[in-house]
Amino acid sequence: MSFMSWQTDYQIGVAEIDNQHRRLVEMVNSLHEAMKSGTGKTLVPKILNDLVEYTVSHFSTEERFMQETRYPEYPLHKRQHEELTRQVLQIRAQIDSGSPVNTIGVMNFLKNWLVNHILGSDKKLG
After folding, report:
1. Is residue 25 a part of any domain in this protein?
2. Does the residue 3 lie in any domain?
3. The pLDDT of residue 99
4. CB burial readout 78-96, b (16+ within 10 A) else e
5. Mean pLDDT over residues 15-29, rounded?
6. Are 71 and 125 in contact (CB under 8 A)?
7. What is the pLDDT at residue 41?
8. pTM to 2 decimal places
9. Residue 16 and residue 56: Cα distance in Å, rounded?
10. Domain extent for 28
11. What's 45's domain CATH number?
12. What's the rounded mean pLDDT across residues 103-121?
């Protein structure tokens, strides 16, 4: 069973963004599986790097869409993206340094942030 399942409620009605959200859910599940299976030490840094890169690319897509549609809440939405990026980079730095990481806490944080952001801020884009 997946850590995080795609729900039709997550669709915002913009195909490109919906497809990227699905991919983010898949990547969170891959990270969870690596952490759970004990292969975390070797796979987690790579999966987390891939997740960071994909998330930054996804945020660029959303932000371009918001600018093109003159979305009034663009500055707030962009700040939310910047804050998540900052937090995930801190987690990555902690893992890279060999410091202990609360993997359950990290996974719950990522899942909750993604769900709340999609159902809250991103839903308004569609």
Report:
1. yes
2. no
3. 86
4. bebbeebeeebeebbeebe
5. 96
6. yes
7. 66
8. 0.90
9. 15
10. 13-125
11. 1.20.120.50
12. 92
Residue 59 lies in a domain: yes
Q: Is residue 118 part of a domain?
A: yes
Instruction: Report pLDDT digits (tens) over 30-82.
Output: 988 888 887 656 777 888 889 889 999 999 999 999 999 999 999 999 999 99
- C-alpha 56/C-alpha 101 separation (Å) is 22
Would you state the structure tokens that stand for residue 3, as one six-digit string?
């850590």
Write down the pLDDT at residue 101.
80
In angstroms, rounded to a whole number, what is the distance separating the alpha carbons of residues 8 and 109?
21
Q: How many CA atoms lie within 13 A of 112 on its CB side?
A: 6
What tokens were used for 39?
């292969």
Q: How many domains does the chain have?
A: 1
**3 state SS of 40:** helix
For 52-69, give the DSSP string.
Answer: HHHHHHHHHHHHHHHHHT
**CB atoms inside a 10 Å sphere around CB 25:** 21
